[in-house]
Amino acid sequence: MTASEHENRGPAVPSDLGGSTLPPVEEKQNPRSIGELVAGISERFSRLIRDEIELAKVQAAAKAQKLGVGAGLLAAAGVLALYAFGILLLAAVWGIANALPLWLSALIVGFVLLLICAILALVGIKSIKKSNEYVVDPKSGLINDIEAAKKGLATDE
After folding, report:
1. How far is CA 153 from the centre of its chain?
2. Which ranges of 32-137 would DSSP assign to H, the alpha helix?
């Protein structure tokens, strides 16, 4: 093999990897212009963006399907827990009815439930009032970002 033939061939792949020399590299006689290169890059970039958007759609659909199944199972668990809670309340009424009359045991269980509801409502109202202290203002955040970008551009010049 002459030196000119060796220069026109690709790098050799080690024989322990099962390869030999690569086929000859073809040199184009008419190289593409800068405009053609930029157009090619632009077209490939556009295709890349479209493909990434398509991939995001497919991934979002798969995630939505999994979330839907999870939400359905969670709703079923909530309904069954509600029924179980009712049965437990009935058991509490009957348990207390062993020592007191049935009507009085039902009244006691009902009063305890109302007391728990009142406590939860007060805690919820306090939490809502506390959340009103935080004002959501995306406009000021955007203005601060724009000002920071302007300052950054001004220091570059």
Report:
1. 33
2. 34-97, 102-131
- The two three-digit tokens of residue 35, written as one number: 């405009």
Coil/strand/helix, residue 12: strand
Phi, psi of 12 (to 5 degrees): -80, 140
> Consecutive sets of 10 residues in the chain, 157 residues long: mean pLDDT of each?
48 53 60 82 85 87 86 93 94 94 94 94 90 73 76 67
Other C-beta atoms closer than 10 Å to the C-beta of 139 total 8
Backbone angles phi and psi of 41, in degrees to 5? -65, -45
pTM, two decimal places: 0.46
* CA 157 distance to own-chain centroid: 39
Three-state secondary structure call for residue 147: helix
If phi > 0 it is left, if psi is from -120 to 50 it is alpha, else beta; for residue 87 that is alpha
E strand or H helix at 2: none
The pLDDT of residue 123: 94
What local confidence, expressed as pLDDT, does residue 3 receive?
Answer: 46
What's the chain's Rg over C-alpha atoms? 36
Other Cβ atoms less than 10 A from the Cβ of 109: the count is: 20
Residue with tokens 């839907």: 68
Could you tell me if 105 and 94 are in contact, meaning their C-beta atoms sit under 8 angstroms apart?
yes
